[in-house]
Batch of 2 targets.
Target 1
Amino acid sequence: MASLNACDFYGLDEFLTQEQSLARKTAKDFIAKHVSPRIKESFEAGYFLEDLPEIMGGLGLLGANLSGYGCAGMDSLSYGLIMKELERCDSGLRSFASVQTSLCMYAIHEFGSEEQKEKYLPKMAQGKIIGCFGLTEPDVGSNPEAMGTNAKKQGSHFILNGSKTWITNAPISQLAIVWAKTHEGIRGFLVEKGTPGFSIARIKNKLSLRASETGTLFFQSCKIPEENLLPKTLGLKSALSCLNQARFGISFGVLGAAEECLQEALTYTQSRVMFEKPLASFQLVQEKLVHMSTEITKANLLAFRLAQLKESKKVKPAQICMAKQNNTKIALDCARLARDLLGANGVSNDYNSMRHMCNLESVFTYEGTDHIHKLVIGQEITGFSAFF
Ligand code: TGC
Ligand code: FAD
């Protein structure tokens, strides 16, 4: 009898449609051909592989779950499975795709004018325009409502002042979606690279997500034409609805990293002999492997059901928060356990687990920290807000 798959113990694979399997295979083949051979060097040297966006665009992997404007129009589960394959390789690559698709393209698709959609979305789907999403500021992270960046209306322009930091893709982007306070509350703006008063600085020395570019955006009396306001944005909830999309993708993505770590730990402990026996034959080692397999199986079930809820348009933000929080936490735990089981070799970039572990520390913090998601769920089930 064939043994059960440690990463898909309950056989979720059999529920996938042909289209969903094909989406996953497209991402898997892309990774094997274009990314896997180079990812360790990219992480170690700390740069993003800049030829990837256009290749991904050619394969329909950007804006994959959006419809029209050159996007592939895939369903939620297909999108989740793509994110999983990208992050199985490296969270930095999934981050690039999350920001491009779920934060930037979604924002334009959902809140943009027809002209804005025609102008930006097809090129973003092809990977020819790269976007970044500026919500966080140096003094404002978990509570974006308190942002200081502001946009004052002046004739047919807005004058933008402030800064945004820890912005994924910023150094490689041509377009920034920037959230700012206006006389009508928080609104989203399209700010093109090269706009006078707009500058970008690269953040160096990250010990996490090293294969992803991160930067700070500065706005000094930056003159934005009013046609660059995203007209349907109204209040912080517009920005938060973009976060829902990205958090959904992360709920799947991190499981790719977790599965890769489990697979690496399994292979390693089955072949390495210590005290005259394979490591995998010791009870304490098996306890860790079983814990990883069980948590990954539960997390996959959570993600699978989340995709059904999203597809039927019944999903609530707190349900997305639960999957982002739980799945990121278990992925980080799995990476740490796998690192341990690899002994000294686990700290080497010759293996994958420590790179995943370092990356997942960022994922644990961005798109809502572990605490913030617990507070959202706490509020949902008790009716009491514990944020302040
Ligand atoms: P609150 O008073 O609760 O709500 C304000 C309005 O927003 C509505 N709302 C939502 N709408 C859509 N989706 C959600 N998830 C929503 N959450 C709340 C809410 O109904 C209300 O609507 P209305 O009509 O009454 O005005 O808002 P709050 O200011 O208390 O904030 C809530 C809180 C703390 C949960 C929120 O601020 C939050 O999520 N903070 C975390 C910040 C965060 O996640 N930042 C992420 C930055 S982007 C990023 O990290 C990208 S990394 C990408 C990568 O590399 O992959
Ligand atoms: P803080 O809000 O200062 O939180 C610090 C600690 O305090 C955390 O443990 C937090 O959980 C805790 N805390 C805060 N408030 C409470 C509370 N009420 N109760 C209990 N605990 C609390 N942002 C963008 O806008 N766009 C991007 O593209 C982007 N990319 C990023 C890429 C990377 C690599 C990283 C690391 C971050 C990125 N971010 C981005 C920023 C990210 O969203 C923020 O770091 C995150 O929202 C947390 O904000 P903060 O770092 O200011 O932490």
Target 2
Amino acid sequence: MIDNLPPLRDVITTHDLRAKKQLGQNFLLDLNLTSKIARLAGDLENCDVLEVGPGPGGLTRGLLAHGARHILAIEKDPRAIPALEEIAAAYPGRLTIINGDALDVNPLDHLTGPIRIAANLPYNIGTELLIRWLTPRDWPPFWQSLTLMFQKEVAERIVATPGSKAYGRLALLSQWRADARIVMHLPPEAFVPAPKVHSAVVHLTALPKPRYPADPSVLSQVTGAAFNQRRKMLRASLKGLHPQVEDLLNACDIPPTARAEEIELERFCALARALATARAAG
Ligand code: SAM
């Protein structure tokens, strides 16, 4: 037992929280499991935590029991708010609840650093939020770590290495400015209702600075063009970026006949730097 609050199945019944598909609701009702995810989020004692989509509050309770200093929980479904308020009452001053869309809320209006993010995300907005958290203009970002549940295939794209089918922009984006690891696998039966897919928790830690230097928007142009036509040779897919793109590729030790999925992050960053220099030289 992690707290004196009622079991989550009772919370669901009391508040009539029947899962709604359009809100991506697949709840974790086993508090042992949510405690484990909270532990994977790291040391929370001196951290504020942003939680997106707390639903009936299983992970929220895990995070609070694990010592989170203060949690901002953003939940779109108004039916879940009374259940979350019961948790807030059991942990006075440590849980702020917002009934709204996580895409519209600025967490920094409510939290102070250091900040960790932990969430069993609604799958429909999971990737969008991840990309948003990974692409601020300035680095390091407002968060120290992200501990996020994804559909297994998305988790595999985040940690993918060159040469694999899953390797692409999401891997490069995640690994350029963060360390990313899959820390837990969950079968469909871990959720109520059980989704059709398997899930995995990914833990990302923000690096103090990007792994290799590059201008974020040039790197994004290069990887965007390269992976939008991932079956093409790079000399063809990157043709539109610069008239002498083949020379730039050669200078970065990238065979112009290679395909995007063969090229590791370090050489994409080198190419982004070479492209920026060539453009500046006119
Ligand atoms: N964290 C809970 C758990 O582990 O049992 C619920 C997880 S469920 C997969 C996703 C939750 O996100 C649901 O409670 C859903 O209502 C909420 N949600 C969906 N879209 C949202 C949005 N745009 N902003 C905030 N919450 C959202």
